[in-house]
Write a structure and sequence with these properties.
Residues 164-236 form the Xylanolytic transcriptional activator regulatory domain. This is Xylanolytic transcriptional activator regulatory domain-containing protein. GO terms for molecular function: DNA binding; zinc ion binding. This protein is mainly alpha-helical. It contains 10 helices and 2 strands; from the N terminus they run ββαααααααααα. It has helices spanning 29-34, 55-68, 78-86, 91-105, 126-135, 145-157, 161-177, 190-214, 241-266, 275-287, and strands at 10-11, 20-21. Strands 1-2 form a two-stranded antiparallel sheet. α2 packs across α4 (91-105) and α4 runs antiparallel to α5 (126-135).
């Protein structure tokens, strides 16, 4: 089982950095990092809310998520999801599980059984969304990488554009507050550094896309980014390397676009002369 993280085995890196565990079990590198980091009190999910699909449905939805979503957005590794499934008593673990199932349900061939309303095709997966939304209430909401990932996944499938934008903004704001954009000391376990970097760059992708679609400035300031791009193949099997290469290619493209947009904003046209000056010039031309 996943060990609970306490103040005895966490440390801070940077002014706004999130807590990073120093204690690792070689057989379970994810355990301590995914543990409950809510130091204000151990708020756990009561058993009646620890609802997951049956094992067969869970496996099907997980496979659908990795087949249809992970290929273009390699964010939640299988090992991370496995640990979360084993620890649904922790709010952010249950939240991420429901977000993954929510995305997977969009491609399920048995969509009718996954509808909240049997007569409404648009209600597929809404049970997972509603359960996840329950974990976003103040009592259970914890600032954690899993929470950031879940918010981004919920943004993918939600029908409301306003709600999608809200989820993305919340995820990016939380990621910045956690300091995911800051470079950690080399003494931090490489798995943790890679996990944080991967999640941040996924936030960067969402921020860039939302900014381009909505025509508004992004929430992430490129000049404040201190971490390097994650490496293809980190934390996952070799079969996922292509997905990593794809998103890294997209991220480099967005970096270039953001740089071009920033530079173009620096080139300002001189403001037009006042109307009184234009009128005076017109009078002189006419008199000639």
């Amino acid at each position: 089982m996943l060990a609970e993280t306490t103040l005895n085995n966490v440390a801070y890196f940077g002014a706004n950095a999130a807590m990073v565990t120093n204690t690792f079990n070689e057989e379970d590198l994810w355990g301590a990092q995914l543990g409950d980091s809510n130091t204000a009190g151990d708020v756990l999910v009561p058993e009646e809310l620890q609802i997951l699909p049956d094992p067969i449905t869970r496996e099907q939805l997980t496979d659908l998520y990795y087949k249809n979503h992970y290929s273009s957005l390699p964010m939640v590794q299988r090992e991370v999801l496995r640990v979360c499934q084993e620890n649904v008593h922790i709010p952010h673990c249950l939240l991420l599980c429901n977000a993954v199932y929510y995305c997977g349900s969009m491609y399920s061939p048995n969509a009718i059984t996954l509808r909240r309303d049997v007569n409404d095709e648009g209600s597929v997966g809404e049970d997972f969304f509603m359960r996840g939304q329950g974990m976003l209430e103040k009592k259970y909401l914890t600032t954690h990488i899993c929470t950031v990932q879940a918010l981004l996944l919920f943004a993918i499938g939600h029908k409301s554009q306003a709600q999608r934008s809200a989820f993305i903004s919340q995820a990016i704001t939380m990621a910045l507050d956690m300091g995911l954009h800051n470079k950690l000391d080399d003494s931090v376990n490489p798995y943790v550094r890679a996990y944080r970097a991967r999640t941040f760059w996924c936030c960067y992708l969402f921020d860039s896309t939302a900014s381009a679609i909505n025509g508004k400035p992004g929430l992430i300031n490129d000049e404040e980014i201190g971490i390097d791009m994650f490496t293809a193949g980190e934390l996952g099997p070799e079969s996922e390397t292509f997905s990593d290469q794809y998103i890294i290619h997209c991220l480099h493209g967005w970096q270039l676009c953001r740089r071009i947009r920033k530079n173009s904003n620096l080139i300002t046209r001189p403001s037009p002369p006042p109307r009184s000056v234009e009128s005076a010039q017109g009078v002189r031309v006419c008199s000639l």
